[in-house]
Amino acid sequence: MTEKTENKMDKIVSLCKRRGFIFQGSEIYGGLSGTWDYGPYGLALKNNAKDSWWKRFVTDREDMYGMDAAILMNQNVWKATGHVGGFSDPLAECKKCKKRFRTDQIPDKKKCPDCGGEMGEERQFNMLFKTNVGALEDENSISYLRPETAQGMFVNYKNIIDAFHPKLPFGMAQVGKAFRNEIAPRDFTFRSREFEQMEIEYLVDSKNWEESFEHFRKEISLWIKEVGIDDDGVSEHEISDEDRAFYSKRTIDFEFDFPFGKSELYGLAYRTDYDLTKHSDASGVNLIYLNEETKEKITPHCIEPSFGLDRTVLAILSSAYKEDELGGEKRVYLKFVPKMAPVKVAVFPLLKNKPELVEKAREIYKIIKKEFGAVEFDDNGNIGKRYRRQDEIGTPFCVTVDFDTLEKGEGVTVRDRDSGKQTRVSENGLVAYLKEKIQ
Known about the structure:
Elements: H1 3-18, E1 22-24, E2 36-38, H2 40-59, E3 64-67, E4 72-74, H3 75-80, H4 83-86, E5 88-93, E6 100-102, E7 123-126, E8 129-132, E9 142-145, H5 150-154, H6 157-164, E10 170-179, E11 194-204, H7 209-226, E12 234-238, E13 250-258, E14 261-272, H8 274-283, E15 289-290, E16 297-298, E17 301-308, H9 309-320, E18 321-326, E19 329-334, E20 345-349, H10 355-372, E21 375-377, H11 383-393, E22 397-401, H12 403-407, E23 412-416, E24 422-425, H13 430-438
Parallel strand pairs: 3-10, 20-21, 20-22
Antiparallel strand pairs: 1-2, 4-9, 5-6, 5-7, 8-9, 10-11, 11-17, 12-13, 13-14, 14-17, 15-16, 18-19, 22-23, 23-24
Helix pairs in contact: 2-9
Pfam families: HGTP_anticodon, tRNA-synt_2b
GO biological process, one term: diadenosine tetraphosphate biosynthetic process
GO molecular function: ATP binding; bis(5'-nucleosyl)-tetraphosphatase (asymmetrical) activity; glycine-tRNA ligase activity
């Protein structure tokens, strides 16, 4: 990792805290490793990304069924899929400093990357968060916080079939929390113990899996551009036979050049019929698909596009973070695409101590807020400080009400975040002007 990229990551983390995007979990008590709290702007950014994903992959399609499965599931779900017995990472502890590491993520398994001490013996560490359901704690009350959202959809496959009678191919989609007891959470929100996934289990006839795989490969690339992730920093990595999950016949990782290095952003896997077969065998429930036209019975195969929502937010922030000079002053700004920006428009009175300006600015603010929702009124500090503050949270447009607005009826000034250019726009044409720019 270069000094330049390290510095950029530190700057993003600092901006996120300073401007209310992301905070350390339980910070006033010293924090809790691998947990993060989203503040108002971070939550808005995350929701914008989530809404965009849901629109593209669910509501704009005719072959997708939304789900919201429970986080706690019968323990036999995780036994059937091998998570209880095999969902683990290699762990070793340094004999000198006592820190623990995933041995597949350190250069030398025998040497501590922090203090240089000798590493202890490697062992497998199961990442499931275990809990108990009900008043009695025994073997029958065990449950787990789900480590992925996928299985909640697979176990509801029969419910979707019975309720909707869909034709193949069709998919189930879900956005939700997942939990993994990571050995070494790292790189801000990139690897956390609690995170949010956006996943699709797309069920196909095995004869047609390649067609659907290529379809989602293209859709993922299009969505990356849509949310403002720098596609020049995205590359596809074909996972080799020896590195692929045992149930997958083909997997592509979409990798992104984060400030700390190139790492996985999204995954696209051909999971075959592994999950439905395992659940059918373990539960004793028939999960065969009947083609009502041909009367053919098959176990569908699955194409799984998997998206980390927290990683999406981090990639958007990394792509949007910019530094430049404007008007002879250095500035930091977030160059979000307008649809991702937590605040779309900010409205200012030129001076806060002039009631007539404040009143008019409030009037315009209410009109714009009805149209766009994510609009702020800001009269704190001088106009230059307000611009810098809005630049740092990525607001695309700032509207200023001045004396020409009141005395000459010459409309308002609309400032563009990226160029700093100011355009005079009439009051009557303001909503249409902003709508065109934002959309």
